[in-house]
Amino acid sequence: MFAITLTATTRYVESLKKNFLRSENTYVTISQWPEAARSGQKVEEIAKPVAVEHPRGIYPGRIDEKGRLKLPSDFQQFLIAIGEKKLFCTTFDERIARLYPISKWKETEALLKEPAEDAEAAEDLWFTAMDFGGDAELDSQGRVVIPTELRRALKIEDKPVYLEHYKGHINVFGEEVYAERKQRARENRAGALKTFERKGLQ
Questions:
Q1: Global pTM?
Q2: What is the DSSP string of 59-115?
């Protein structure tokens, strides 16, 4: 048995099979524990920063008859790696659901609550988010329950959906929105490609 003196709060990201501890923005592998215990070093002194990569691509999924969405394994692993199992599920446009890791939602809350010239617009977005939103937590099988009103508004009850990571949250949308986005991208991509090639796209 051994112990490590910590100056920052540490917590398990997953069980031993994941083989690391998380301390704020750094990670300590289990193989480093004995060395750290003997040396008395702080976690911050031995931990090596590890960049957590988010999922890329559009993933298929499905909302089941109980309103549960089983996240693809890449999304499950991403949330576990960043230490986030609690989510806030909502929408701002009644088209696309947004699943925010709770720390990311707190940033969004702060943005919408800032007094500014756009206070009325922020209040409207806040109302929409609260009206359709609700807390959810990743269960042991990688599922989250999507709030009933949100499922109904987006017409995704017991239906296939698509998921993508976008700016720190997970977008979830149904087949109709997917088809619309695909058609729009097809119609606009020639011009978009030329624009971004001028900006350096290779």
A1: 0.74
A2: EEEEB-TTSEEE--HHHHHHHHHTT--EEEEEESSSSSEEEEEHHHHHHHHHHHHS-
